[in-house]
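Give me the fold.
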Amino acid sequence: MLITSKDNETIKEIKKLKEKKYRKEKYIVEGIKMIQEAIQYDANIELVVYSEKFGISNVNLEGIKTIEVTESIFNTLTEVVSPQGILAVIKKNEDSKKIDYSTEFILALDGIQDPGNLGTIIRTADATNLKQIIVSKDTVDTYSPKVIRSTMGAIFRVNVIETEDLAQELDNLKKEGFKIITTSLQTNKSIYDINYNKSVVVIGNEANGVSDKVYAVSNQKVKIPMLGKAESLNASVAASIMMYEYVRQNLK
């Protein structure tokens, strides 16, 4: 059946997911590649919506609930300038709130604000085979459309755990045997001078860096060597350098 009314209850519920306050339990992904990744990695797909002009044979949706909508209705659901005509509503995994303490390296983000930065960090974490990232509650919403798109499917393979109190969570991790490492310009210690096994590396806000509360619980402050005139690096670049230093040390 083709849905033609914007007042359809299902359509109204999907529209709500464009706002952060309604994304506590589910979120939207768009495009063939993202939906294929969701299927491949067993994401909990509640529903797939496609426009009447979309070629449904382009993707295998066997066993998945689908609805067809008019082009105009689909355009009210998407935030993409040139949409492919297909999106999915994904339910969040209940395990997404649990930290895995058995891992050797965890990345934590303190107040990252740019969606592109967060998406790139998640994608790089996936590339380095990290399975989880902890984010402060004031970090940009992981499930915003811009973040989701920039993860390029990594969102299905990296568990992003939001914590109400990052400093307290880091203190708990210290009790579990982790050392807390923060990036700082106020140190002579290079990122190449320390071992990253059983550690949490914290990347701070783009403008203000790591918060004072987080600095207070850190065991070690390190800096990325800056050989040129630049005073700082993009947050996603800094995070990538730190993740790959952990990889480098463990490839020996």
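The first strand starts at residue 2 and ends at 3.
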